[in-house]
């Protein structure tokens, strides 16, 4: 036994922190009087401009597909979580906005952010399907809500400061989702944007895992991967002639937490230029300037010199890739024989080919895998026992993992009901924190736990 094993933790292991690159970045800034002066002062509302520019350049190379993303689409902030809070503060009001739709199983730590903004009891789950979300379920929900004649205009957010409020928020993690590991198909992304435009909804996506990807096949080369799936904000930028109005119907939360280290607390938001400008003027930012300003100036050095991209390519991705194969092999060896199954939806490359209407025989060559998580289903005998199993795992095997019931949309009885019939039977494992050897031992402990529970469940 190697002690405590935490397969719940979605944190990168400290051995992957680019400490020397950060030190060099900090030193580049702090040994230059000019850079120091602009780094240690209150930051501009939209963030350290060199970083906004280097993020725009980097995102252009990742998602641009030939078009340039202008830096005025980007504002810098302190991470995806803080940014979600800012979006709600700036663009919603519980008296005006009707519903928060969350793809379920959901990233459970987003629920309190919605609740803090007055949306307790107004959050509703949208079941995930193999292509990312049940779009017809959402369509029906939006339609029904539009028939509701209860006045929803009692907003206190009036006047010039709040030029735009949205009627609905749709929140999801479309690529390598936390928790389900699914990636939404291109077709669903397009349908979702069209729906959002029709019902005055803002699609908010946490795009924090997208660049951490590798071939699902062990022997394939990373060069064989197709393009990174477009973010919903890219789809809104380009679909049917571009955004419906100056605000758009999608925004992206980006973060350096998963690709540098969570403690740097630097992230960014991307939307239309008008959206990003309004977002960067939330009250606390107007008063204190962009949060994490000094660290943002260090992060810029890493991006501008390419040292972050090199670190990801040569260190982070190969490490996660090796751990991914290790966990897959261990699941296959120890859990599948017990009736557990991996469930990560349909492969993106197949679906995107179909929905692109590729008639020229072109296929993205290999299936992609990535992110931090894998989602597996408990054997039928243990359906609904995730919480009890997790408690026993911690007590008897010093093993931690996340289970489906944690991922309910808080405060929605229908979401709890759906959990009991479906996604509640899942458990989420992460490869981000532990070494390959520890991961395999964690899976072995889980197998012993599950075996024991199956025996106990037998009459
Ligand atoms: C989907 C999702 N959003 C947001 C976060 C937190 O991001 P940040 O550290 O940038 O606030 C996480 C971290 O686990 C996450 O998985």
Multimeric status of the protein = single chain
Helical/strand content category: alpha/beta
* Beta fraction: 5-15%
User: How many strand segments?
Assistant: 15
Outline: globular
CATH class term of the largest domain: Alpha Beta
* Low-pLDDT stretches: 354-362
Specify the number of helices.
16
Bound molecules: pyridoxal-5'-phosphate
Helix content: 40-55%
Radius of gyration: 22 Å
Average pLDDT confidence is 94
The CA-CA distance between the termini, in Å, is: 32 Å
Tell me about the biggest sheet? 7 strands, mixed
CATH architecture of the largest domain: 3-Layer(aba) Sandwich
Q: Indicate how many domains the architecture comprises.
A: 2
Strand order of the largest sheet: 2-9-8-6-5-3-4
Quick description:
The chain contains 16 helices and 15 strands. By secondary structure, it is α/β, with parallel strands linked by helices.
SSE blueprint and pairings:
Layout: E1 5-6, H1 19-30, H2 33-39, H3 49-63, E2 74-77, H4 80-91, E3 99-104, H5 111-116, E4 123-127, H6 135-147, E5 168-172, H7 186-198, E6 201-206, E7 213-215, H8 232-238, E8 250-255, E9 267-270, H9 273-279, H10 283-288, H11 293-305, H12 307-335, E10 341-342, H13 348-356, E11 368-370, E12 373-377, H14 386-397, E13 399-400, E14 402-403, H15 413-421, E15 426-430, H16 436-457
Parallel strand pairs: 1-13, 3-4, 3-5, 5-6, 6-8
Antiparallel strand pairs: 2-9, 7-11, 8-9, 10-12, 12-15, 14-15
Helix pairs in contact: 1-11, 3-11, 12-16, 14-16
This protein binds pyridoxal-5'-phosphate.
């Amino acid at each position: 036994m190697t002690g405590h094993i935490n397969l719940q933790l979605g944190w990168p292991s400290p051995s992957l922190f680019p400490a020397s690159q950060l030190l060099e970045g900090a030193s580049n800034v702090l040994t230059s009087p000019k850079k120091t002066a602009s780094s240690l002062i209150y930051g501009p509302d939209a963030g350290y401009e060199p970083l906004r520019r280097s993020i725009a350049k980097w995102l252009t190379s990742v998602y641009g597909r030939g078009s340039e993303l202008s830096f005025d689409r980007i504002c810098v902030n302190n991470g995806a979580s803080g940014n979600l809070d800012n979006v709600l503060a700036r663009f919603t009001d519980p008296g005006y906005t009707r519903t928060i739709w969350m793809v379920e199983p959901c990233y459970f730590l987003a629920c309190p952010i919605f609740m803090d903004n007055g949306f307790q009891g107004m959050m509703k789950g949208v079941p995930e399907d193999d292509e990312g979300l049940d779009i017809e379920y959402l369509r029906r929900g939006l339609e029904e809500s539009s028939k509701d004649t209860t006045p929803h205009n009692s907003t206190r957010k009036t006047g010039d400061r709040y030029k735009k409020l949205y009627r609905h928020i749709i929140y999801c993690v479309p690529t390598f989702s936390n928790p389900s590991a699914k990636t939404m198909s291109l077709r669903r992304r397009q349908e979702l944007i069209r729906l959002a435009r029709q019902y005055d909804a803002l699609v908010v996506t946490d795009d924090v895992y997208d660049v951490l990807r590798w071939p699902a096949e062990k022997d394939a080369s990373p060069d064989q991967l197709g393009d990174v799936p477009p973010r919903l904000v890219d789809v809104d930028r380009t679909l049917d002639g571009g955004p419906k109005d100056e605000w758009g119907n999608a925004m992206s939360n980006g973060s350096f937490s998963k690709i540098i280290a969570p403690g740097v607390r630097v992230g960014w938001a991307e939307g239309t230029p008008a959206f990003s400008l309004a977002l960067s003027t939330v009250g606390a930012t107007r008063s204190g300037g962009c949060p994490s300003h000094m660290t943002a100036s260090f992060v810029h050095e890493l991006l501008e010199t390419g040292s972050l991209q090199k670190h990801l390519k040569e260190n982070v991705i190969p490490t996660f890739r090796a751990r991914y194969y290790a966990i897959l092999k261990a699941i296959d060896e120890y859990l599948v024989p017990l009736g557990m199954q991996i469930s990560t939806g349909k492969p993106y490359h197949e679906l995107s080919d179909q929905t692109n209407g590729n008639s020229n025989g072109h296929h993205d060559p290999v299936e992609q895998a990535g992110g931090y998580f894998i989602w597996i289903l408990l054997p039928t005998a243990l359906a609904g026992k995730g919480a009890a199993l997790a408690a026993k795992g911690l007590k008897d095997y010093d093993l931690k993992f996340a289970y489906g019931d944690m991922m309910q949309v808080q405060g929605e009885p229908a979401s709890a009901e759906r959990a009991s019939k479906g996604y509640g039977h899942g458990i989420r494992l992460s490869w981000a924190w532990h070494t390959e050897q520890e991961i395999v031992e964690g899976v072995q402990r889980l197998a012993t736990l599950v075996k024991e529970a199956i025996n106990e469940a037998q009459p």
